[in-house]
């Protein structure tokens, strides 16, 4: 065995370079100055190109449209904001099985629709609520909500499937998970047992509520292609969303149109083309203002202002119209995107994610997409702010936006 002597490594001495004297020195200085000027010029050109890309992007060149505005509504979220008290711990939560829940939810929806003047509402049927036991259905909530929509003169877009609005997104009842083994990042419908149970539920729900005159459209699940961060990254396949649409239409005698909605962060996500091809209505979730963590700090980024990398919703709208299909924004940001309890956001602790100016800017973006219909996200929170904090700012902004629909025709 050869034993090598260990050599201690010392840092090499640092020497300071010296410039040559005379004409050679002037040449070197000029070279450095030229290189510095070139780098500055290149940086300036990059900045100028980005400014040009932004100024020529769709939010700045597309004309203002005149869409109809509606709202999203979740009874669970309304309860969370308006009824539940986190200071009381377990005693501060309300039970979904309490008497009168369906009536309270319908009354709250009516307050929103009539108070805001909204004529469109997007509702989600939550599987664990509508089918608490296999084959036993409880339609009281969805029946009450649809009846209230009708009384308020509003039409309903009804989402049905395993994934719905708000937390926890996947509302799969415990009994339906029996005999299945969903791992993290699973494609839920690849489990044949769960696949058949979802489709059976969809068929039963649609067959029951299809008689409601308030329904004008359906949604095959909610953002089916997007992995849910709240549910171990679960998602649904394109093929399954297409099968859901077929199941909905087979159980709706009126065969009302079915939308598939998608949410994307960058223009490189092309799955909206799948939704366009498979659905009767192309729908999108649009959150213009996002929180971004950089070097431990949180910044608010306006996604439409990142130039050519931003999703081009105006192009999507034109693509849909070219195929004779509508383009809707079924989730349009109108409440803050926060990483903590949204109930803590109020006049004394506002969120930089959505200011009144950002709200107005978001509505400008929505109008420039070319969407025929826009469902605003956050109606429960506007009511919460008005009732809990006596702050009508967001309520008034939303009502002004909704009432502006059709202004160009008046």
Ordered list of secondary-structure elements with their pairings:
Blueprint: H1 23-55, H2 58-61, E1 68-72, H3 75-82, H4 101-116, E2 120-125, H5 127-130, H6 140-151, E3 155-160, H7 174-177, H8 192-209, E4 215-220, H9 238-251, E5 258-263, H10 272-278, E6 281-286, E7 289-294, E8 297-302, H11 313-322, E9 327-333, H12 356-368, E10 373-377, H13 379-388, H14 393-403
Parallel strand pairs: 1-2, 1-10, 2-3, 3-4, 4-5, 5-6, 6-9, 9-10
Antiparallel strand pairs: 7-8
Helix pairs in contact: 3-13, 4-6, 8-9, 12-14, 13-14
Low-confidence stretches: 1-16
User: Helix and strand succession?
Assistant: HHEHHEHHEHHEHEHEEEHEHEHH
What gross morphology would you assign? globular
CATH homolog superfamily: Glycosidases
Proper CATH architecture: Alpha-Beta Barrel
Q: What's the CATH class, please?
A: Alpha Beta
Describe the structure.
The chain is of the alpha/beta class. The chain has a single domain, classed as TIM Barrel (Alpha-Beta Barrel). The protein has 14 helices and 10 strands. The protein has helices at about 25-55, 60, 75-80, 100-115, 125-130, 140-150, 175, 190-210, 240-250, 270-280, 315-320, 355-370, 380-390, 395-405; strands at about 70, 120-125, 155-160, 215-220, 260-265, 280-285, 290-295, 295-300, 325-335, 375. The strands form 2 sheets. It has an 8-stranded parallel beta barrel, surrounded by 7 helices. Strand 9 (about 325-335), helix 12 (about 355-370) and strand 10 (about 375) form a beta-alpha-beta unit. The longest helix is centred in the first third of the chain and has 33 residues, at about 25-55. The chain is globular, with a radius of gyration of 27 Å. The protein starts with about 20 loop residues before the first helix and ends in a 7-residue tail after the last helix.
């Amino acid at each position: 065995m050869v034993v090598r002597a260990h050599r201690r490594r010392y840092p090499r001495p640092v020497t300071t370079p010296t410039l040559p004297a005379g004409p050679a020195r002037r040449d070197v200085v000029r070279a450095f100055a030229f290189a510095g000027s070139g780098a500055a010029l290149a940086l300036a050109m990059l900045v100028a190109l980005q400014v040009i890309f932004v100024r020529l992007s769709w939010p700045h060149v597309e004309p203002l449209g005149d869409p109809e505005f509606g709202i999203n509504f979740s009874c669970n979220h309304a309860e969370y904001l308006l009824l539940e008290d986190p200071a009381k711990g377990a005693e501060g939560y309300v039970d979904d099985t309490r008497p009168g829940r369906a009536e309270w939810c319908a009354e709250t929806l009516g307050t929103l629709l009539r108070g805001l003047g909204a004529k469109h509402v997007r509702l989600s049927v939550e599987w664990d609520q509508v089918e608490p036991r296999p084959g036993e259905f409880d339609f009281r909530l969805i029946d009450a909500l649809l009846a209230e929509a009708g009384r308020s003169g509003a039409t309903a877009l009804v989402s049905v499937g395993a994934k719905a609005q708000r937390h926890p997104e996947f509302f799969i009842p415990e009994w339906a998970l029996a005999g299945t083994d969903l791992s993290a990042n699973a494609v839920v419908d690849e489990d044949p047992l769960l696949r058949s149970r979802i489709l059976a539920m969809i068929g039963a729900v649609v067959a029951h509520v299809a008689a409601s005159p308030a329904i004008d459209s359906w949604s095959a699940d909610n953002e089916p292609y997007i992995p849910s961060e709240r549910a171990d990254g679960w998602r649904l396949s394109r093929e399954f969303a297409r099968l859901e649409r077929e199941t909905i239409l087979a159980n709706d005698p009126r065969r009302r149109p079915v939308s598939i909605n998608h949410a994307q962060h960058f223009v490189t996500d092309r799955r909206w083309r799948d939704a366009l091809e498979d659905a009767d209505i192309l729908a999108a979730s649009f959150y213009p203002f996002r929180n971004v963590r950089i070097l431990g700090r949180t910044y608010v980024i306006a996604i439409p202002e990142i130039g050519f990398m931003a999703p081009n919703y105006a192009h999507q709208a034109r693509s849909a119209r070219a195929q004779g299909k509508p383009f809707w924004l079924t989730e349009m940001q109108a409440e803050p995107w926060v990483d903590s309890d949204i109930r803590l956001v109020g006049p004394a602790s506002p969120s930089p994610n959505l200011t009144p100016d950002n709200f107005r800017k978001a509505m400008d973006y929505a109008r420039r997409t070319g969407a025929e219909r826009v469902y605003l996200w956050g109606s429960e929170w506007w009511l919460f702010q008005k009732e809990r904090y006596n702050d009508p700012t967001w309520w008034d902004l939303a009502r002004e936006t909704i009432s502006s629909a059709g202004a160009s025709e008046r």
